[in-house]
Design a protein that fits this description.
It contains four helices and no strands. The protein has 140 residues and is mainly alpha-helical. It starts with 11 loop residues before the first helix and ends in a 5-residue tail after the last helix. Bound molecules: fe (ii) ion.
């Protein structure tokens, strides 16, 4: 998958991390492609999932701190959406830790992750960008 300029929200630090996460998820999807439940593949999937979870968790925290700092009015709703997503992430990480994650489930996880990221960036995160532009007087 290819990152689009349209996904940018106009806040450099956030855009940069979004793009990195997008890349990690693309790599993850590439790893999960093709059906094979060989142990090496599942190990690779597990390693990649843990890395993605850590990156996303750190990113969501940064985004929330940023919103706080900028007195973003919709922060509480935004935090709720992040919390819900973190629950979903944990569900898959749990499956993985209990050795209950097969390649099919990991493919499902990859698709969900990518869909969530793009939808979230294009809706809720764009609103942060708009707010900041208004604050700076770029947009009225
Ligand atoms: Fe967000």
């Amino acid at each position: 998958m290819i990152w689009k300029k349209d996904y940018e929200i106009g806040i450099d630090i956030i855009d940069q991390q979004h793009q990195e996460i997008f890349q990690y998820i693309s790599n993850f999807i590439a790893i999960t492609q093709g059906i094979s439940d060989r142990k090496e593949k599942l190990d690779q999937i597990k390693e990649s999932m843990t890395f993605i979870k850590e990156s996303i968790t750190a990113h969501l925290e940064m985004e929330e701190t940023y919103q706080e700092k900028m007195s973003y009015p919709n922060i509480e709703q935004h935090k709720k959406v992040h919390a819900q997503f973190k629950k979903e992430l944990s569900y898959y990480i749990n499956l993985c830790e209990k050795q209950k994650l097969d390649v099919i489930k990991s493919q499902e996880f990859g698709t969900k992750l990518m869909t969530w990221l793009i939808m979230h960036i294009c809706q809720m995160d764009q609103e942060i960008g708009q707010y900041i532009k208004c604050q700076k007087g770029i947009l009225k």
